[in-house]
Amino acid sequence: MTCVFCRLITEDAARWIFRGPVVSAFAPLDPLAPGHALVLPTSHYADIFDTPAQVLAESMVLVQRVSGAMRTALKAGGVNILGASGPGSEQSVPHLHFHVVPRWTDDGFSTWPTEQSQRQIASDPIAQLANAMAATHSA
Q1: Residue 115: left (phi > 0), alpha (psi -120 to 50), or beta?
Q2: Position of motif Histidine triad motif (predicted)?
Q3: SS3 letters for 13-50?
């Protein structure tokens, strides 16, 4: 088994915050903040593009539950929800996951991008997206 997250699930080798049959949450070894959690499907899906809609929905429900626990148990003022999907996104582990990072007003760091992409798209990217959405909605 080459997927590090699948190995953690199979070997029960993580510090689990929640374990479920469809989605789970655990603490990473290198947290960005106290209480930082990763929420992931229990079955292997590489990224958002190959994850079934129901699994995505259950993942987001768990993200919301973990976020609520951060607010009540850790007194976090908010959370950052971070995810990357696909090789062009800096996804480091090819197993869909979402980082849920508790935040406080005075925590001294930012997880928000500080630069803009240098990528240029020849024609209107918003029109291209709208057309793609309309095509997939009617299919």
Answers
A1: beta
A2: 95-99
A3: CCEEEECCCCEEEEECCCCCCCCCEEEEECCCCCCCCC
In order of 125, 127, 128, 131, 133, the CA distances from 138 in angstroms are 20, 17, 16, 11, 9
CA separation for the pair 50, 57 (Å, rounded): 14
One pLDDT digit (tens) per residue for the chain, 139 residues: 589 999 999 999 999 999 999 999 999 999 999 999 999 999 999 999 999 999 999 999 999 999 999 999 999 999 999 999 998 999 999 999 999 999 999 999 988 888 888 888 889 998 998 998 899 876 5
Domain ranges of the chain: 4-113
Answer for the pair 97, 5: CB distance below 8 angstroms, yes or no: yes
- The owner of tokens 């971070």 is 82
Determine the 3-state secondary structure of 75 from DSSP. coil
Q: Which CATH class is domain 4-113?
A: alpha beta
Distance from C-alpha of 41 to C-alpha of 29, rounded to nearest angstrom: 19
Q: Work out the angle at residue 61's Cα, subtended by the Cα atoms of residues 133 and 107, and round it to the nearest 5 degrees.
A: 100
Q: Alpha-carbon distance 95 to 72, whole Å?
A: 29
